[in-house]
Amino acid sequence: xxxxxxxxxxxxxxxxxxxxxxxxxxxxxxxxxxxxxxxxxxxxxxxxxxxxxxxxxxxxxxxxxxxxxxxxxxxxxxxxxxxxxxxxxxxxxxxxxxxxxxxxxxxxxxxxxxxxxxxxxxxxxxxxxxxxxxxxxxxxxxxxxxxxxxxxxxxxxxxxxxxxxxxxxxxxxxxxxxxxxxxxxxxxxxxxxxxxxxxxxxx
Length: 203
Ligand SMILES: Cc1cc2nc3c(=O)[nH]c(=O)nc-3n(C[C@H](O)[C@H](O)[C@H](O)COP(=O)(O)O)c2cc1C
Prior knowledge:
- Strands 1, 2, 3, 4, 5 and 6 form a 6-stranded parallel β-sheet that branches.
- The chain is 37% helix and 15% strand.
- By secondary structure, it is of the alpha/beta class.
- Residues 10, 12, 15-17, 76-80, 113-115, 117, 119 line the site of flavin mononucleotide.
């Protein structure tokens, strides 16, 4: 049984990225439970002055990440980049310095856009950021969904909207990749060489 936290980089009520995440549970391998994180919009703008006593919303996200066996992040693309609200959340998640709950997790990332490039530039940034933060990201298949509005049944229930067979097949593969990464502790293995560095930080 694995517990996976899904984060959408969009606050929009009808977000395509959020709709994609809502559809993942039906594609997930047996034993994987996916929970959608809802607190992104309540996080304050990151400010180092707030770090000594961060608000409860920040603690909630830190704990939600700590409790998760794996992560899924779906990002829109704003002006060729990941949205500020997602970068802000990941900046918070990267703290406290040396004691962040993020490193050592396995993750998958995806992006979706009504445009023809599927938000691939934002997704690439997200991959780069996760490499920096010692999060193990499953390499492929790379899912950047173009013209996403044409791949959803807008009349269906929230968890059942994704009706494009190719996207469904790719997401299914990606979710199996995540399950294997969690089973093989790929994230933990990634940070093993960092234990010495961490102990130096703590001393
Ligand atoms: C400020 C802004 C900038 C955008 N820039 C891009 C972009 O660079 N590339 C792209 O594919 N779509 C861009 N879009 C369109 C978004 O992909 C579209 O609004 C999408 O629906 C947002 O994701 P969501 O549905 O998950 O909220 C932009 C939208 C906004 C509001």
